[in-house]
Write a structure and sequence with these properties.
10 helices, 306 residues, 21% strand
Length: 306
């Protein structure tokens, strides 16, 4: 094995994936385990994966972890995690105590955005907005190769803003009831654009209960979904005006999604000239864990662990 360089962990709600990158940036080792649905089990599982790599390599290399939610430096706790057993917990401090102070963490959508901006579909662009369309909806912002975090550690969290123009733009939406979100608000973008949100829309429109991946591509449900996506992304263009929007997460695998959103986007922006590209992630499901590997060279110590 070439010299071990960095460990990346993708801490998901159902699985924890770990990879080891060598000095050439190649994946030298990879493993997935189920995520325990309680805090101490999750911490133990992450530490066990890192320990397995340590024994394999005989070295203790830096660890980057992509997590749901965000780390709050002021309180030394996690917040906004849809893996709710992490909320209010000192995840970073507990992991650093177990792993000799070599852990950095960032939101999983931030890790996705960082991976695609540095060495993926957004490579070479100055401003990249990374979008997660999966079990939840999140986002991350990378400017000139650096993540934007923000004083509240929520930069890019567009999934928990209201869906724009709900029921005002298309008759299909008139029959859709309000949707509560786990964040405590109603009609968040996540409740419509996530995989479960897409399935809920299809059930409401057709009476058929299907997984998001099984909804027919030529159905009115998909047409409505791409309209909702374009409306939501237009708000990002209005505020951020990114060079590239990179789509990731399970729903991003829908054929033609990026093209459909691109075609509809100008109708909802303030003055959109078609210069923002919407593309699908180059690294697919691996983007998050690869971005976690990049947290050490990409973030300074104050922003990552202060």
């Amino acid at each position: 094995m070439k010299r071990p360089e960095r460990i990346g962990i993708d801490l998901g709600g159902t699985k924890i994936e770990a990879v080891l990158l060598d000095a050439d940036g190649e994946v030298a080792w990879r493993k997935r385990v189920a995520t325990p649905r309680e805090y101490h089990g999750t911490v133990t599982a992450v530490a066990a994966l890192v320990g397995e790599i340590d024994r394999l390599t005989g070295a203790a290399v830096p660890v980057g972890i992509g997590t749901p939610g965000a780390w709050v430096a002021a309180t030394r706790t996690m917040k906004n995690c849809n893996s709710t057993w992490l909320n209010g917990r000192p995840l970073l401090d507990d992991l650093n105590a177990l792993l000799t102070n070599r852990v950095r963490i960032a939101n999983d959508a931030d890790c996705f955005a960082l991976s695609e901006a540095l060495a993926g579909a957004g490579a070479g662009a100055s401003v990249v907005f990374g979008v997660i369309l999966g079990t939840g909806v999140g986002g991350g912002i990378v400017v000139d190769g650096r993540l934007l975090n923000g004083p509240n550690a929520i930069a890019g969290e567009w999934g928990h803003t209201p869906l724009p123009y709900l029921r005002a733009d298309t008759a299909l939406e008139e029959s859709l009831p309000d949707r509560p979100c786990y964040c405590g608000r109603t009609n968040c973008i996540e409740t419509f654009l996530s995989g479960p949100g897409l399935a809920t829309t299809h059930l409401a429109l057709t009476g058929k209960r299907l997984a998001a991946a099984d909804v027919p591509a030529d159905s009115p449900t998909i047409d409505l979904y791409t309209t909702m996506l374009a409306r939501a992304l237009a708000q990002i263009v209005n505020v951020l005006d990114p060079d590239v929007i990179v789509l990731g997460g399970g729903v991003s695998n829908m054929p033609g999604l990026a093209d459909a959103a691109t075609a509809k986007l100008p109708g909802y922006g303030f003055s959109h000239e078609g210069r923002t590209r919407i593309v699908v992630a180059e690294h697919g499901d691996a983007s998050g864990v690869l971005g976690a590997c990049r947290l050490w060279p990409a973030l300074d110590a104050k922003r990552a662990t202060a």
